[in-house]
Specification:
With 203 residues, this protein is an alpha/beta fold. Helix content is 29%, strand content 18%. The longest helix has 19 residues.
Length: 203
């Protein structure tokens, strides 16, 4: 695999490409790299340094992660609203994820704008100080998948405005507000290509 990489200017990354180009493989390697760095830093081994998620159980299994709802304690009945839920449960998750340095989300096309907003709010709830207002609580966010594949169910496209908690149609899109794209292309042995898109936050 030949790799062409541009300078990373932020902590937001999108890995995209056609089916079978090795996106999930690359994600798994990146997850292992984050775990290795955590081992060297001496953090508690029981607490994950990478939070790996996907919208469906099958997709989560492929990358060795959990569903978004399971990992972040979302209830299916709260589709169009965000709730912090039980205070003790939220405190437990915050403690469990306090060493997380990177958030990986696969099959990003199936993550709608409301689900992305809920992920953002949950990570902000876990954060402290000025990071409580930062996108994803200031944690590195690596998304992967083909944006032209399956759309989200009962949600807007991730690039559209979110209507969570009854917000109007003019509400902003977390994706569009935070992700500005420059592109690098991976050339694979069979001459197919996979794009690694660095999302450039201009703030």
């Amino acid at each position: 695999m030949n790799i062409c990489i541009t300078t990373v200017l932020t902590n937001l990354v999108l890995i995209t490409g056609n089916a079978g180009t090795g996106k999930s493989f690359l994600v798994r390697q990146m997850v292992e790299a984050v775990k290795f760095l955590n081992l060297k830093s001496g953090n508690e081994l029981q607490k994950p340094s990478a939070l790996v998620m996907a919208p469906t159980a099958n997709a989560a299994f492929i990358i060795g992660g959990k569903t978004i709802d399971s990992a972040l304690g979302f209830f299916p009945t709260d589709k169009n609203r965000y709730t912090q839920g039980d205070a003790n449960r939220l405190a437990t998750m915050k403690f469990q994820y306090e060493n997380v340095k990177a958030l990986f989300v696969d099959e990003i096309s199936m993550v709608g704008s409301m689900k992305l907003a809920k992920i953002n709010y949950r990570l902000q709830d876990f954060a402290d100080g000025s990071k409580k207002k930062a996108f994803m609580g200031g944690i590195s966010f690596i998304a992967s998948g083909d944006m032209m594949q399956l759309p989200p169910i009962f949600d807007n496209l991730i690039t559209e405005s979110n209507s969570i908690d009854g917000r109007p149609s003019i509400a902003p899109s977390h994706w569009n507000d935070n992700f500005k794209v420059s592109c690098s292309v991976f050339t694979l042995p069979d001459n197919s290509t996979m794009e690694l898109k660095y999302q450039l936050n201009t703030e």
